[in-house]
Amino acid sequence: MTPDAFPGPLFTDLYELTMAAGYFQRQLQASATFSLFIRPHPKRGYFVSAGLEAVLDALDRFRFSTEEIDWLARTGRFKTDFLDYLAALTFTGNVMAMPEGEIFFPNEPLLEISAPLIEAQLLETYLINTMGVASMLATKAARCVYATAGRPIVDFSLRRTQGSHAGMVVARSSYIAGFNGTSNVLAGKQWDIPISGTMAHSFVTAFESEIDAFEAYADLFPESSIFLIDTYDTLQGARNAARVGRRMQAKGLALQGVRLDSGDMVDLSRRVRRILDEAGLPEVKIFASSGFDEYVLSHLIENGARIDAFGVGTRMGVSADAPYLDMVYKMVRLGNRDVRKQSEGKVTLAGEKQVFRRRSPDGRFRGDIIGLRDDVPPDGATAALLAPVMEKGRRLGALPPLSEIRDRFADRFARLDDQFKRLENPGEYPVAVSRRLAEIQKKC
Fold first, then answer.
1. The Nicotinate phosphoribosyltransferase C-terminal domain covers which part of the protein (predicted)?
2. Domain 138-317 sits in which CATH superfamily?
3. 99 neighbors 376 (Cβ within 8 angstroms)
4. Which of 28, 39, 46, 149 makes the best surface tag, with the fewest CB within 10 Å?
């Protein structure tokens, strides 16, 4: 089993199964279309699409095992004819989706599924869980990348994520969003993400002296040594690192860097830079880690920290300032009837949809229009963002490699105005509704 493998159709909320049983009892088997989207979020001016690969893998594998059907029978909640139906169930529907790495905005469908009602309904929990978390983390990571203003940044979050699966999602999503690597070795193996790491304080304290620890590490990893210098006294640690660095230099080797993990990063990084430069080691980089997120990173850079690269962990890995997205999955069409929810504050858009993106002559994003799926692209719209990825339960070709998804995000992010990227009080990106889609809403 791969680390992101589908856990099976019982990974769902009970009410999905009870609703399905109700549909089955009343023979409600018409085709339904459900739309997956995110409601507005006060701290986010944009979102990054992620998680589609795992979703399509789940749809390929969607079937109940004999063991799962037997367990459902033992709960005493479901009739035998319904369980027999589930035992033969596979996904036979169609999927329209934005590609991973695309930028999207509130209320825009990230994905729409059209399938027999029971099939479409049973997917709700998994879809929200999978794409919600992956998109949340990709968005958080993109904000961190933006804050570093071009400096390298690595995912150090694995030990603090909420479980092993979350750690894998963080590594993949952050790489999509522009991180340069991860400390997560398994993610490196699975997705060919560059792996990165230095040493812990325990390594330093395992030796009689700090210099002994640095020399031992340099002997073992002469091409990739980065010394953690704040175990005892940070400035003395920098001097000790410089001594070992000069010894390496004399052997034709090069110390790659030193790492700060505590203290006043602005002041310490400046003083450490001075120590390294005076020792004749201007090429040695200063890496830093210590509870960073986009806000801390921005503060450090704005205040002149002499830090060359960052390791970002807990706050990115759990999206600390926005630890969930209000992602929802709502029915928008049943049979030949468009439907929508009209609850106060939670009104949805009926109808099978498409998202059209308008660009200026230089390629920058000007605004989006949510329309009906068969709408003619409006003037100035250069892209329809939802594309078919499954038909009749079968994938339409292979998904792109992670490197291509990463390149897509970089391209799209470069086209987004800075006002929407702001860490505080981002601008509201213009998203309109087409005339035909608006007319549909009046009839529901």
1. 384-440
2. Aldolase class I (3.20.20.70)
3. no
4. 149
- Which of 420, 358, 314 has its CA nearest to residue 41? 420
What pLDDT is stored for residue 1 in this prediction?
A: 38
How far is residue 444's CA from residue 442's CA, in Å, rounded to a whole number? 6
For the chain, the domains span: 14-137+322-442, 138-317
Largest CA distance in the chain: 82
Short-list 374, 355, 405, CA closest to 102: 405
pLDDT band (50, 70, 90) for residue 320: very high
Q: 349-393, pLDDT tens digit by residue?
A: 999 999 999 999 899 999 999 999 998 887 777 789 999 999 999
- Least Cα distance to 358 among 426, 268, 434 occurs for 434
3-class secondary-structure state, position 357: strand
Q: Which residues pair with 365 in a beta bridge?
A: 359
Q: How confident is the model at residue 276 (pLDDT cuts 50, 70, 90)?
A: very high
Q: Find out whether 107 and 39 touch, Cβ atoms under 8 Å.
A: yes
Reported as a single tens digit per residue, the pLDDT across 242-254 is 999 999 999 999 9
pTM for the model stands at 0.95
Please name the amino acid found at residue 186. L
Closest Cα to residue 90, out of 59, 113, 121, 67?
59
Q: In Å, what is the CA distance from 77 to each residue of 15, 18, 22, 87, 132?
A: 12, 8, 12, 16, 30
Which amino acid type is present at position 363?
Answer: G
Q: Tell me how far apart the alpha carbons of residues 53 and 402 are, in angstroms, rounded to a whole number.
A: 10
**Contact (Cβ atoms closer than 8 angstroms) between residue 16 and residue 391:** no
Which of 3.20.140.10, 3.30.70.600, 3.20.20.70, 3.40.1190.20 is the CATH number of 14-137+322-442?
3.20.140.10
